[in-house]
Structure formats: C-alpha cells, structure tokens
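Bumping my old thread because nobody answered last time. Still need a sequence for this structure:
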C-alpha cells in the first residue's frame, strides 16, 4: 500500500498528460507510490488509451524557437519557459526568446550550460533571465536546448511558438525538410526508424503488450514462448505508428514518409529533434 500522499495537483497533472479519468489517475498514482511515469505505464497496462512517454511535458507555457545557420548546416531549438500564456504571447517575451536563439547560433553553442554563459551585449543569458524574471514577476527559464549538425538542416516552428522541430538530412532538400518537420510536429515519432528506437522504449512497449495479452481470456494457458512471439508481431504496429519513415505521410496517406523521401530524390533523415510545450 502506498505511503505517499497523492495531491489533487498530481492527479490533475496525470489527467492532462494522459486524458484518463480522475479516479483512474488517483488509482494509478496510488499503485505506483506517486511515480508519474510508472503511473502512465500502469494506466496503459489496464488498457487505457493514453500517450506513450514523451519528453515534451516539462514546460507549461513559453516560447520555442527553432532556427538554422545561414548555410543550413546547423540547427538549434531553444525553449524559454514561463508560467502563463499571457507572458508567452507578449511580443517582448517572444523577442527575448529569439535573442537567445540568435546568440546560440552566433556563438556556435552546443549545450544548454554553454548557452547560459553566452553574452548578449554586456550580460550573460543567465543574468538576462534573472533580470527578466524580476521584471515580469513570474518564474521563467531556458529549459530546453537541442542541436543538429548535418549536410542540410531544416527547421520549423508550429502553433505560435509551441513546437519547434529540426530535421537533419543527407542533402539539400528544403521542401522535403519542411514537410518532414511538419510531420514530426504533428505525429511526434519516437525515432527515425525501427532500428533507431531505444532498447528501453522497446522493452517498455513489449512489457505493456504482454501484460494486456495475459489479461485476455483467449490467451489463458498459452506458453510464454508463444506469447513472446505474438508480442514481437504486435510490435510491428508500434513501429509503423511511432517511427518516422514508417508513418503514413500526413500530406498523402497513401504513402509512407519513407516513400515520400525516396520520391523526393532518395533523401535520408539522419536525425530529428522535437521540442514542445505541454
């Protein structure tokens, strides 16, 4: 039995992240001693249709800027977070976030820590954030930084600075890069293809599928080896839905993203980054 106090705020956070009901969220958090990610898995193992783990749940409000160098060889995404949409929609705050992104490009920044030490005029980014916090009166911060280097990098900002995407390609392909970036913004794949899905993500999905199968009366008495083979087969659907090149192309669902890239001149996606407010 859980000894952790489950607050209404915890329950609401889980509801917003998963869409599950209040009582289900309370039960999930109780069963997992308040572990947020474990609670998501618990809900999925009960058959709840909730989202898989994503890293874009951290920032509540703010501005996400994605941009590239002039030669499109490097791209960066910066998330400057705040507490309210009133601040995030303010033109001065958007300009503030853009100035930080510009500084990242101009100084060839590779990490978030390095970015915080970069100077804009006479002040470092860290000092500017502190001063902005004092001026605005609510907590703000540079909470995310991503970078891609490739022969060609496309960038895309979606939904009034709420999602920023970078796509690394093996050759110059501006139109394909934009289309694929829009695909990533919309469908949030976990990896470029099945071979690039992290082992822990695969293990997690297999565990959830296996648990659901064990709850199915039709699977009662089936040997573990057979169940594992069925799980491997069901993972095909996961890869089709959750990996970029296997997904149906949003602009033409009759083809996959991989098909579209081949038709666009055998373009290859080497990497992508997606940063979103959640």
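Sorry it took so long. Here it is:
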């Amino acid at each position: 039995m859980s000894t952790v106090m489950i607050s209404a705020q915890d329950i609401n956070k889980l509801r917003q992240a998963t869409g599950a009901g209040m009582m289900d969220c309370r039960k999930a958090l109780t069963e997992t001693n308040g572990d947020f990610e474990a609670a998501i898995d618990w809900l999925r193992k009960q058959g709840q249709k909730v989202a898989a783990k994503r890293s874009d749940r951290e920032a509540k409000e703010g501005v996400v800027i994605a941009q590239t160098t002039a030669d499109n060889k490097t791209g960066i995404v910066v998330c400057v977070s705040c507490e309210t949409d009133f601040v995030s929609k303010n033109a001065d705050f958007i300009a503030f976030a853009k100035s930080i992104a510009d500084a990242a490009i101009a100084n060839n920044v590779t990490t978030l820590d390095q970015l915080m030490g970069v100077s804009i005029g006479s002040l470092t980014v860290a000092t500017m954030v502190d001063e902005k916090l004092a001026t605005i009166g609510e907590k703000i911060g540079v909470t995310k930084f991503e970078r891609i280097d490739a022969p060609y990098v496309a960038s895309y900002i979606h939904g009034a600075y709420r999602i920023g995407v970078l796509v690394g390609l093996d050759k110059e392909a501006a139109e394909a890069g934009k289309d694929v970036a829009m695909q990533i913004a919309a469908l949030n794949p976990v990896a470029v293809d099945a071979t690039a899905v992290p082992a822990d993500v695969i293990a997690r999905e297999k565990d959830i599928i296996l648990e659901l199968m064990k709850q199915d009366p039709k699977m009662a008495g089936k040997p573990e080896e057979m169940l594992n083979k069925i799980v491997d087969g069901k993972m095909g659907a996961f890869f089709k839905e959750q990996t970029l090149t296997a997904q149906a192309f949003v602009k033409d669902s009759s083809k996959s993203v991989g098909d579209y890239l081949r038709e666009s001149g055998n373009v290859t996606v080497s990497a992508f980054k997606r940063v979103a407010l959640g």
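The longest helix spans residues 224-242. Let me know if any region looks off to you.
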